[in-house]
TrEMBL record:
InterPro entries xrefs: CAT-like_dom_sf (IPR023213)
Keywords recorded for this protein, A-Z: Acyltransferase, Transferase
This protein's name: Uncharacterized protein
UniProt-recorded Gene Ontology molecular function terms: acyltransferase activity
């Protein structure tokens, strides 16, 4: 089951709940776009499309176009068209967790058509089913079906399951450790920082060294943020404990599997590199951190992935988790780095043109538990600029927002037009 809300701002509105290929409409006041705020198991996106004076009078037509094309897309990516349901009733006990909501939608969509003619399309995808690449495949396929442009994307739903067979049992300690490393009861805040193209170029030069002669913009910005976020944390705690950067690595794009995974393979096909910084052994200069990040990703090589495939892959994965546990035993400051720059979200065109801006995260200040120390990078407009969406402990964030060296390159919540330039 998927949920679609159609909201015409400052005009009539209705709430449409749609099952795959069927729909039921009822009069209601629609939830605001704030309902798409970040939730721990969902990856939210909001696409903002430019003003068109004719759009506000075509809300029903837009809704029909989106629902029809979405139905067609879900035929090809069918795991997202179902619903998650626990079948504990078949067992003599209740061994699993209870869902607060008996119906968990893998996909939720909200269309907002404003009186000015602008459009904001919000999409939430369950991160338990998809990663960023799968989200990109889904959105590009949907946009292609909606706009009538030939769809050259062919989702592959089988290869990954064969290469990485499902695991029947995961020891509870691994689940507990994962939850404790991901979620925290600390009060976190979300802030958006913009890096203009000139700032990106300057940071790439700043991060260069004999170890990494030509750092990518992802490496440069990640190293820069890692350095200053760690410094801000230390100014609060007064300690110099180690720091770890966990970076999301897409294993489709690294030619690591044999046979090769299709670039359109569906699922959570990611691994996390771990770059470990110990102040007793390494200085905290940016070029050193960039080299650590590069080396951490390089460790996810052919042998690394080969060990995780096949029937014995789960045992190898548990060994990997054991090694990561050793690194995390000292309770280091841990930062999660994810780059959505290559996913093409800024090019999603449903027939209305490309979005002028894509918001990739919502308000986390009211979410307890939350995901602390998460840094997500996305493209800014058509130039080489980058947006960094950051979730940090509010005390650490206050220090970072007053760091003059950080603010020399990062612009807090910049105007969209100034960051993205001409659209």
């Amino acid at each position: 089951m998927l949920r679609i809300t159609i909201h015409q701002e400052y005009g009539s509105c209705c709430d449409l709940s749609a099952k795959h290929q069927t729909s039921l409409a009822r009069s209601s006041s629609a939830a605001s776009i704030q309902t798409l705020s970040y939730r721990s198991t969902y990856s939210p996106l909001v696409f903002f499309y430019p003003v068109d004076d004719s759009k506000h009078s075509k809300t029903a037509q837009l809704a029909t176009q989106l629902k029809w094309s979405l139905s067609k897309t879900l035929d090809a990516i069918y795991p997202l068209s179902g619903r998650i349901e626990l079948l504990n009733g078949f067992l003599p006990c209740q061994p699993f967790c209870q869902l607060n909501d008996p119906i968990v939608a893998p996909v939720t969509v909200q269309l907002n058509v404003f009186d000015c003619g602008g459009i904001a399309l919000g999409v939430c995808l369950s991160h338990k089913l998809v990663d960023g690449t799968t989200a990109s495949i889904f959105l590009k396929s949907w946009a292609s079906n909606a706009s009538g442009v030939p769809n050259n994307i062919h989702p592959n739903l089988s290869d990954a399951a064969v290469l990485f067979p499902p695991v029947d049992y995961v020891p509870q300690r691994y689940i507990t450790n994962a939850e404790s490393s991901w979620f925290s009861d600390c009060r976190c805040v979300t802030r958006r920082f913009g890096f203009h193209d000139k700032a990106v170029a300057a940071l790439m030069a700043k991060g260069a060294s004999t170890m990494v002669e030509y750092p990518t913009r992802i490496q440069a910005i990640s190293g820069f943020i890692w350095k200053h976020a760690t410094a801000a944390s230390r100014s609060i705690s007064g300690s110099s404990k180690p720091s770890v950067a966990k970076e999301v690595v897409n294993i489709r794009s690294r030619r690591l599997t044999k046979p090769r995974l299709s670039k359109h393979s569906i699922g959570n096909l990611i691994q996390f590199s771990m770059s470990h910084f110990n102040p007793q052994h390494t200085d905290m200069e940016m070029d050193s951190l960039v080299a650590l990040l590069r080396d951490g990703v390089a460790e996810i090589n052919n042998e690394y992935i080969k060990d995780l495939t096949g029937d014995r892959g789960s045992a190898s994965y548990f060994d990997l988790l054991n090694r990561q546990e050793e690194i995390l035993k000292g309770n280091p400051e841990t930062f999660m780095l994810a780059a959505w720059i290559t996913f093409g979200f800024n090019d999603i065109d449903f027939g209305w043109g490309k979005p002028i801006w894509v918001g990739v995260m919502g308000n986390t200040s009211r979410c307890i538990p939350s995901i602390p120390n998460l840094i997500l990078l996305n493209n800014a407009g058509r130039r080489n600029g980058v947006e960094a969406w950051m979730i940090l402990d509010e005390k650490i964030m206050r220090v970072l927002e007053r760091d003059p060296e950080f603010l020399a390159y990062a612009s807090p919540n910049p105007c969209i037009s100034s960051l993205c330039g001409d659209f």
